[in-house]
Amino acid sequence: MHPWVQRLHPPVHHLREAGDLRHVDDREAGAVQGRGRAPGRDDLNAEGFDPVMTRQDRVGYYDLAVNRRDVAPYVDRLLKADALVFSFPVWNMGFPAILKGFVDKVFLPGVSFSMKDGAYAPSLHNIKRLGVVCTYGGSRWKTFLMGDPPRRFLKRTMVRTCAPGAACDYLAHYDMDHTTLERRERFLRSVERIFSTW
User: Fold this and answer.
1) pLDDT number for residue 91
2) Domain spans, the chain
3) CA distances from 195 to 27, 36, 155, 165 (A)
4) Which of 40, 49, 45, 47 is nearest to 77 (CA)?
5) 3-195 adopts what CATH topology?
6) Cα 172 from Cα 135, distance rounded (Å)
7) I want to staple 130 with a disulfide (CB 3.0 to 4.6 A). Which of 104, 105, 125, 168 is the partner?
8) pLDDT at position 117, please?
9) Given a cut of 50, is residue 16 above it in pLDDT?
């Protein structure tokens, strides 16, 4: 398995103040490496990824000859991977802007799907497993009542773009605003346990 870990926890996020949980991406990558695989790892914030879809991006969106031009290195890594991990904080019941922009600009026609006779056809069949490690400020119950948009999108929409039968491991640490060291450690152990099976 050749997983690609997409790290999106920004350096000033509340995880930093929360102690060891700021190393969540290190734990997941370490667990995968423990099984003899070296995951590719990116930090979109550190790389200065531009999440803004410009007018030119939108105009060329369906033009397969030009739509990868500005994101080719990301597309290449995505197409070489057989698993994908997103690690991010949930803000305002959604993705951070940089993750939303990443999905919009990299999961393009000709990359993750194609349009045939006006019908959508998923095509990211190299991805056999999807992993999500995220944190929420709100409780699981409050998040459930709000519809949990990140979980819904990743487990229902994104996974269907991947290979038929692709699995999705969704690990969420809720109520970060009231977390404790014990809860964080328990969550990190579950991250290590799940990713050690990859």
Assistant:
1) 86
2) 3-195
3) 9, 12, 17, 18
4) 40
5) Rossmann fold (3.40.50)
6) 6
7) 168
8) 85
9) no
